[in-house]
Amino acid sequence: MKISIQELMVRSGVAFGTSGARGLATAMTDSVCYAYAQGFLQYLESIGEIKRAGERVAIGGDFRPSTSRVMEAVCRAAEDMGYRAVNCGKIPSPAVALFGFENKIPSIMVTGSHIPDDRNGIKFNKCGGEVLKSDEQGMSSQIVEWDDALFGADGSWSSSFSWPGKTLKRELQRGAPREVSPEAGENYAMRYLNFFAHDALKGLRIGVYQHSAVGREVLVKIFSHLGAEVTALGWSDKFIPVDTEAIRPEDVKLAQDWAASGKYDALISADGDSDRPLVSDENGNWLRGDVAGILCAKFLEADSISTPVSCNTAVEKCGWFHDIRRTRIGSPFVVASMIQASIDGAKRVVGYEANGGFLLNSDIENDGKFLRALPTRDAVIVMLGILLLAKAHGKKVSELVATLPARFTASDRLKNFPTEKSAAIITQFNAGSEAADKAALEKMFRSICGQVASLNRTDGLRITFANEEIIHLRPSGNAPEFRCYAEAKTDERARVITTDALARISS
Question: 113 catalytic, yes or no?
């Protein structure tokens, strides 16, 4: 069978692009996952990044129920193309990426991140960094091929399939355990244990909200080995879709209940694939990701920051950084901006997103030790950066947050909102002169925020008002949703703006 990736996207309903593949677990059949992994590796071959002669491909996954099956399909695709699949096991996304970057091999992470467990995804990394927007066309234009007898009509492995020298059997195809290489997971933990002093966190009491995060054990290991008194909390055998950008009410209450005991200086957690952090203060208040990113950048003494246009303007208002680069929303845009910052001569280049994902594009040196660059979302560095910055200044986490300018962000969305309708709304305010567009926006939003001061069209439409409040409107890039971000001087006010703005849009 021969099929193009673009045709397969339409046929399967599983989206495939810069962020990898993502869709319903039932739609991510063995054949679809096999084809997407094949297409990715073919693309790397076409640009001369890899060759088949026994090269390794690192593969890991999260704890959602469909992950083992998808990992098997990805492993078989790599092996059938002549590569050696390295089963890294169930470990954090940044651990798989780090292993790939350091060994200059491709890495593939099977994860749906924070989305419910009826869905899943496959994230692809090139040998030296994340897949960028410039790679998307080449990846999606690949044509892949396999023997018709390899899969059944439903896309699952056939009961048996043979070609010279190889026979695939049903019992292998349905999850016989592969040998797991522990190297990637151990390497990720030692990245931090070798860089920071063994007693760096001594005196701190940390609660680790484990739930179903794939990094739950490595978090306990890293923080306890660095001297903290660690308590594991909230373990779950069932997958829980913890989202670090839209924190569930249940997780808000859990943190506050745990903190009420007075036993913890902070709580830490992560999303399903453990690349995006959650950090709370001693009162159980989860920090927003873009606030956490500013504090981590301060700890690392960054001289260049790349961050999406939707993130908190406290990064400019705090005065700590002289080079701040605003990007479109999405880690590929942040990575591209960081690469340019390094080319421009910056020495400590970092990036962060509103979801808390933190990216390090430079090696950090301290007393002859190096924390090597990791230009993909990483949760652990954010947790360590905030706690160590607070400890160095003799402050509680809440007191550290209070040193930032009082800027609060909120976000929400209209679900099941047709993409064409979203585009029409943005176009409505991009049809005339700047003055005409401002006048039209004031007509719609004046009763909420007052007079329009400036517009930014880096990604969607970001409106700054004369009172410094912000409304940012943007169609979702991967779902039929219309998103609204707001910023104001109080958390409550930011939430009110978001609610009122979306109500105005929906009507």
Answer: yes
